[in-house]
Amino acid sequence: MSVLIGELSRKTGVNTHQLRYYEAQGLLEPGRGTNGYREYGDDAILTVTQIRKLLQAGLSTEDIAYLLPCAIGPAPDFESCPELLDALRARLDGLDSRIDTLVRSRDALHDLIDATEQHVPESIPA
Known about the structure:
By secondary structure, the protein is mainly alpha-helical. It has helices spanning about 5-10, 15-25, 45-55, 60-65, 85-120; strands at about 5, 30, 40, 70, 75-80. The strands form two sheets. A three-stranded antiparallel β-sheet has the order 1-3-2. Strand 4 (about 70) and strand 5 form a beta hairpin. The radius of gyration is 23 Å and the shape is elongated. It folds into two domains: about 1-80, Multidrug-efflux Transporter Regulator, Chain: A, Domain 2 (Orthogonal Bundle), CATH 1.10.1660.10; about 80-120.
């Protein structure tokens, strides 16, 4: 059984523009009917669900293209694929590094605010 892009959009809640983007990124591979319309197989709903959850985890479509062949189920869970854990750990390390940078920036801003507030004259009572 296959579904057209509009039906896949309705079943997944993902607009057709995004579905075409996933196709362009190599994440979805529809067939073509005799009329030229995109026809998605039975696994397309699961694949779109997996893509959405991986995007929510902060992964890029490039990361997802690498990981998707290892995905199992809607969560998704992953079967053991070559270098899968290395790729996930590298992504996590990158996020941790950005978080550390943001925390340092926040701390520096707090210090600047505190220093500036010490030089603000107290208001004169009315």
